[in-house]
Amino acid sequence: MSKNTAGQESPYSCLIDNIKVVLIFLVVFNHIIAFQLVKVDDAVRHVWYAITIFHMPAFIFVSGYLSKKPQDVLKNVKNLLIPYVLGYSLTWYAQIWLGNNVDYELLRPSGTVMWYVLALFVYRLVIEAFGKIRFIVPLSIIFALWAGTRAEFSTYLSASRIAVFFPFFVAGYLWKSDYIKAIRKFKGKWIFLLLSFFLLYAVPNFMLSNEIPVDLFRGNHSYKVCGMGDPEGMVVRLLMYLVSFVLIFTFLALVPDRKLPITFIGRNTMGIYFFHYPLLIVMNGLMILKIPQLLNVWALFGVSLIIVLVLGSLPVNWLYNGVLQLLTLILFKGEKKEKEEFSEQE
Predict the structure, then answer these.
(1) What is the pLDDT of residues 206-233, one digit of tens each?
(2) What are the backbone dihedrals phi and psi of residue 309, each rounded to the nearest 5 degrees, phi first?
(3) How far apart are the C-alpha atoms of 37 and 53, rounded to whole Å?
(4) Rounded to an integer, what distance in angstroms lies between the CA atom of residue 293 and that of residue 118?
(5) CA-to-CA distance for 330 and 325, rounded, in angstroms?
(6) Quick one: pLDDT band at residue 12, thresholds 50, 70, 90?
(7) What span, in angstroms and rounded, lies between the C-alpha atoms of 5 and 124?
């Protein structure tokens, strides 16, 4: 096996698990409030904007940090492309089951959350080469800013999102465990928290005051489609990079690096990511999310926590991994048996 191209190991610590627990909760919570609550509560809409700025960039940064070892294409096909097809199909079927007329567009996953899985597959294919380029993080940011001016970068194959979020993946890939130690020892690290609060107040407030759509933070469309000129779009996208990297540093500096009662969920986030969105679609379609008692941010906070705990449990993780292993046996020739975990933690 070749040496690690990033030149560093990425020890899977309690810190990384705990960060992933926070982030996967924010993924679920941000999705559940988007169905109804953001339409009727201005304060929640601000929170929605704030979470949308950084939660997936931070998740992708962590995925890059955990992708340092040499990549096996076949293994990524098994662990990422198969879940991509299954996850898209499950989300599509949830809509069909509810009686909605939705086209099956596997190459345009904009109506699902599976774009992240497709992006992770692409990132892992190219990272060993791109990770060797000098100044790749600022260069990839410049490329992403330019991509926003081009109609070619659209929802097709998640091309826009792949370009927009690649700087976070490559930054995580190049991030060394020694950097984490240094940032956690930094005596003024609490300034990151103050700066995070300020940015998460100021930037969403600026966006909402100027009626700038949250779509720009999602990275799914060009500036023109988001209703902005290219210079304005570039500035707002730069704000996303600023806020996201500050929040990433805040997580690395301040999240506890010890085993907590919920730390185990950090190893089971792929099952949560895979199942939660179809579940929320069904809940919304059955009017559950329109119950007056659930049009409350704290109620939905509790529901999100329950979803994370249930979908992050060992039985659900065994189900998720078991289905993938069964499909692998059916679709691929037998190989030397090795212990594999079908998740983005690899």
Answers:
(1) 999 999 889 889 999 999 999 999 999 9
(2) -65, -40
(3) 18
(4) 36
(5) 9
(6) low
(7) 12
> What type of residue is 312?
G
The number of angstroms, rounded, from the C-alpha of 36 to the middle of its chain's C-alpha atoms is: 22
Dist CA 270 CA 303 (whole Å) = 19
pLDDT digits (tens, 9 = 90+) for 311-331: 999 999 999 999 999 999 999
The whole-number average pLDDT for the span 281-310 is 96
Query: Using CA atoms, how far apart are residues 277 and 185, in angstroms rounded to an integer?
Result: 38
**Residue given tokens 């309690």 in the structure block:** 14
What are 130's two structure tokens?
């791109």
Number of CB atoms found within 10 A of residue 131's CB = 18
Amino acid, single-letter form, for residue 161: R
Burial pattern 35-67, b for ≥16 Cβ within 10 A else e, equals bbbbeebeebbbbbbbbbbbbbbbbbbbbbbbb
Tokens (6 digits) for 165: 């979020």
